[in-house]
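[job 4471] stage=fold_predict status=RUNNING
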Amino acid sequence: MEKAYRYRFYPTTEQENLLRRTMGCTRLVYNKALAARTEAWYKRQERVGYTETSSMLTNWKKEEELDFLNEVSCVPLQQGLRHLQAAFTNFFGGRAKYPNFKKKHNGGSAEFTRSAFRWKNGQLFLAKCNEPLPIRWSKQIPQGCIPSTVTVKLTPAGRWYVSILVNDHTIKPLPKADKTIGLDVGITSLITTSNGDKIANPKHFKKLRNKLKRKQKALAKKQKGSNNGYKTRREVARVHAQIVDIRKDFLHKLTTQIIRENQTIVVEDLAIKNMVKSHKLALAISDASWGELIRQLSYKCQWYGREFIKIDRWFPSSKRCGNCGHIVEKLPLNVREWECPKCGTNHDRDTNAAKNILAAGLAVSVCGATVRPEQSKSVRAGAMKQKPNR
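[job 4471] inference complete, writing structure tokens
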């Protein structure tokens, strides 16, 4: 099972200079290739792929003004072109927007394959570096695991991270549990379970919103391009990083607990990108981070041998009575409790939705049934072979 271990490291002055130059060259090559592909299509209706951009890179290295591209490892430059090709593949497949140009103030990253680093005695040596990276080993990589890819990243907050991808043979399925659970995500309650339990939304962004507001006001008063402006921009980035760290820590603990206690986990396949287009709910939905919650549940189920099921996003989980199956025509968001007009059962909106989600998921698990007459399919991800996002 592939797993990425992420660590923070503190490079020496020599290493930092080399890594910054490597990221700068990777960014330059990516942007030049993106500009070339865009120009070729709009001017000549010609499609340029990875092979053509790789040939362009060879010619760019021969130019006198771009001779500095030869001073860094060639592997991150080629990997940048492969990432651009993947971005265009996702764009033409309708899974992403048109690729954007990379910006310097967003930090940067560089990916090294096996030919561009050495793994020796538990230490990592990157290409053109004589000294190992001074990594803060918060967790040791399991013995016998050899890194296949190393990605170095500089965040806008000025932190250096390295992600080491290995084929981890130590990941074993958890003992089978006798519980199944349906999850309904929300804003007031982050999760409502089919058991009737509710987990409150901690609203991490709201807690640090005033602090972020002060830093952003200070940044707006600084002269653009000045040293003080650079320092204040770094402070703003650190507040954002603090929000992200707190949110991910909470979600990892929550999803791990759910995985350990339940054998089958059922959720809705939400159209989050469409939901955040609502200006009234966009901030609350983004802060709740439903997409990250579902992503973590998905790959952790794959790791630990749990069954993960997504039901159709059009399934009327909130409008359907869990007792008699009657579906009401309208149920506004401000209605949190409702009474079934057919059987008279009083429902808590979220608990009823979670129970219906579980029932639909079990139908998919047992007989592969669809949950809508129109034959839209639910996704059973327990046996899907997918690589977790690193």
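[job 4471] summary: The first helix runs from residue 13 to 44.
[job 4471] exit 0
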